[in-house]
Amino acid sequence: xxxxxxxxxxxxxxxxxxxxxxxxxxxxxxxxxxxxxxxxxxxxxxxxxxxxxxxxxxxxxxxxxxxxxxxxxxxxxxxxxxxxxxxxxxxxxxxxxxxxxxxxxxxxxxxxxxxxxxxxxxxxxxxxxxxxxxxxxxxxxxxxxxxxxxxxxxxxxxxxxxxxxxxxxxxxxx
Length: 174
Hints:
Distance between the termini: 52 Å
Number of domains: 2
Mean pLDDT: 90
Shape: extended
Largest sheet: 2 strands, parallel
Low-confidence stretches: none
Strand content: under 5%
Structural class: mainly alpha
Strand order of the largest sheet: 1-2
């Protein structure tokens, strides 16, 4: 491994991941400005444009392939239009043992004062939850569905409908 790669690897491994509030702030600013004046697709396009025009760009020394999700290495943006994290979520993210993301006081304050008040009932997640049946909500509370499954299709359980009518043995025989 050459010195450049070794340096970049060390920086990547030694840098603590953290939550960046920059994207959430930019998205929120745009939605507040244009909501109700343009169609939803145009609003999303304007928000995307505003993020691209105003996002901090990080280009690290020695990088040949550049670009980060956030303004620094290991900066992780949030997407309040999809899921608006509560302050409790941020504490959990900050304190969990496996893969934690540092959440500093400034991020918590901006989340509390600007992000949550705007997105609390507007995020995609909150809108979906409003439409779900009581039975589904009970299943969610019981852990049958998880937050992970909200964001991803559980492909490991999606099967052809034949398997439900026949069972595994008959399905394998066919």
